[in-house]
Design a protein that fits this description.
Elements: E1 2-4, E2 7-10, E3 19-22, E4 25-27, H1 35-44, E5 54-56, H2 62-65, E6 75-79, H3 83-87, H4 96-99, E7 110-112, E8 117-118, E9 121-125, E10 134-137, E11 141-145, H5 163-174, E12 180-183, E13 189-190, H6 192-206
Parallel strand pairs: 4-5, 5-6, 6-7, 11-12
Antiparallel strand pairs: 1-2, 2-3, 3-4, 8-9, 9-10, 10-11, 12-13
Amino acid sequence: MEKINDVVCIEGLGMDSNSYILDNIIVDTGTGLNQDYLYSKLADLKIEKDDIEMIVNTHSHYDHTGGNYLFSNAKVAIHELDAPAIEHENDPLTASAIFHHDLKRHDVDLKIKDGDKIGNFKVIHTPGHTPGGISLWDEEILISGDTVFADGGFGRLDIGGDHDDMERSLNKLRRLDVKYLLPGHGHWTDNGKEHIETSYNSFTNYF
């Protein structure tokens, strides 16, 4: 666990996504299968689960949304294109079948879109991994979901993904002057712009 500016970074356990805390907002909640771990990390921050007022899901996949039920008092925000997937049971776009578990919470309170604000962060629509994937940007930190990872990684395309969308999204993100890259999985890093450029080059070379 580490704090970067005002963002607390919590590394995901097992198949869980990373989670990021922005005051009373949690960005991504993991699978929900390791609730004691996540609650203990929050306890270290002196945060109770009921202190979380909003969940922001970077996309609809189970390893990012499965833990939404752990915060029953929080409103759920997700991009309008990925909202239908988590609103319905057993939608393939949640990829829950891969994890052999079903989502326990299906409500969406806020359907966000490109240009919206979440705290001090701007929503950037970054489809490619899913149609409604988003990143969050505050002119220094980029919370990138599964669009781009450190060390040249990018989101897989075989669960509702799209090649052309991903290329456009990576190209969009490489134009930002990113200092800190906070991805959906794996380690967060400084020199974010350099890592995104590497990911873009890896993607274009791979395909």
